[in-house]
Amino acid sequence: MTHTRTTSTRTTGTCTLGEMMIGAIARTIEDGTLAFHGYGSPLVQLALHVAKRTHAPNLVLVAGATYAVDPTPPFLSPTSNDWVMDRGAALSLDIEELFDLAAAGRMGRMFLSGLQIDRWGGCNVTSLGRDKLAMKLPGGGGGCNLSCDVDRVTLWTTGHGSAPDASGRRRHRLVEACDFVTSLGHRGVDGRDRRALGHRGRGPQWIVTDLGVFDFDAEGHARLCAVHPDVSIDDVRANTGFELRLADTVAQVPPPDRDTLALIRRLDPLNVHEHEIQARDRDRRFDA
Amino acid sequence: MSARQAIDGGAGRVETRADKRLGLDDLAAMVADGDVVAVGGGLSSREPMAILRAMLRRGVRDLRVVGSAHGIDVDLLCGAGAVSASSESYVGFEQDFGIAPNYRRACEEGAVRVDDSCCYTVVQQLRAAVQGLPFMPMRSARGTGFPGLHPEYKTMICPYTGEELLLVPALVPDVAILHAQYGDAHGNLRIEGPPVLDRLFAKASRRVVASVEQIVPTERLVELGGVTIPYFYVTAVAEVPMGAHPTACYPFYGYDRPHTADYYAAARGGRERFAADYLAPFVHGCADHAAYRRRIGGEETDRRLASWSTGTEAWMSLYREAVDA
């Protein structure tokens, strides 16, 4: 832990990093909107179910892969296109209708991630290497289209913190520029301001990470606005590949309350979401 | 092939034969080297795995795969050297196991041309084919890396609103390969649960080959809730129980996670290990699907994967086992 963060890591407390992140993602979800999670994203799936059962009862929750509307899965399955995930739903959409909702401006929030996230909130899940393919990534699913069409986007990553290699260099998750722009942030690949492109969506609004939370300034640049209780601003700076911008005040990410913690554990009895957390972060604990 | 020919080929076809029933190997033989292939299902559900294995036993090569969210299906085709280009939107094992090892290796070695797409882009391209149109417009994808990867995308200024739109050309797969829960002799298909792109694939493609868990009388299909894909799109159908294994085909069986973990470990071990530990025992070493079913554990495996329906605890226990991959 100390190789990543300069502050000491608490291993007492009852709340895990995954639960901190689920709480933080849930707080980005408004009531009375239609929100959609993709696949391979249990933290986001849980955040949506938490939001709907706490502060956002009128949320229209559309599940990724099954396109079930307002499902109540008995547990989280390890893969997303599983009948577990559409139990309790009165209906499911087909793929055309799901993406049409976004294209027509009806989708209020979506969640995207990347192996690279640039300072404008663009993400890369397609490939590493600019001139020559160095690493093929899985691809973005519908993220490219949705990053343009959905009103608001919450980005998240569990790989912000990275250990330096033998020469002291870190392979950053948050980078100056993506090798390939799979999903659009506030700048296009040619540097054009997103607003000039005439998309429905207004772009990324938050980045929730294993180190803290960013919002975006008026220019559309990511700006650190909160850190987890065991993380310092210098930790974030050391783990960020672009020049760190700070909000006027940098708060501490609040933990979810005890009822929310109990809810998360009830929703995910197999602890599927822990697969998303880096091994080195699985023993971090916070007071709830 | 010109765009015009491609569109006529997709939209002009009507399959009227009264009896479309054939064997699994007959279906596999309808996929030719070099075909643009649309594989049905998605992620860990309803992948037409038995047809894919039969294709690999025949030594099919040079496929271009198109689609949305895929996993072991496309990874297996890549691991067997059958793919030369991928226009999938996603190929992976989600957070459960991670990156698709064979797909990644084939792309990085240059055996598979990286031609990635995105779900709604594919939807719009298939819709153009279904409607017999040369292209469909959309707003999204402008500003991302995809137009740079796809010079066939064009932009236009909308004559009504003056806004810039992206045009994506009709996509007509040579063959759609599907697995459904139910079908009838005529080729009507009933899909339960998420249809993913299967309906669009069936309407847009030149040929449609489908395996089903059960072939039932047409009246039974209606009783079960109706037809998802009408017979006149479907070229041939075969009854292949456990035809989606190791992906799920509810309500018959859930996702075989331990088998997938073994697959993943073999794939991650490199090309030779994958050939020895997976392709040999489960693909080339099985003369037919019956042999495959015996190899994966026969009735005991059938019972284990069917046990999901007995209750939440049983369903969870399918995923509780520790797997190391």
Mean pLDDT over the residues of chain B: 95
Number of strands of chain A: 17
| β-strand amount of chain B | 15-25%
Q: Which CATH class of chain B? A: Alpha Beta
Rounded to the nearest angstrom, the radius of gyration of chain B is: 20 Å
- Quickly name the level 1 CATH class of chain A: Alpha Beta
The CATH superfamily of chain A appears as Glutaconate Coenzyme A-transferase
Count of helix runs of chain B: 15
Shape designation of chain B: globular
What would you say about this model in short?
With 288 residues, chain A is α/β, with parallel strands linked by helices. Chain A has helices at residues 17-26, 42-53, 95-103, 143-149, 233-238, 258-267; strands at residues 15-16, 34-36, 60-62, 68-69, 91-92, 109-112, 116-118, 123-124, 127-128, 135-136, 152-157, 174-175, 204-209, 212-216, 222-227, 246-252, 285-286.
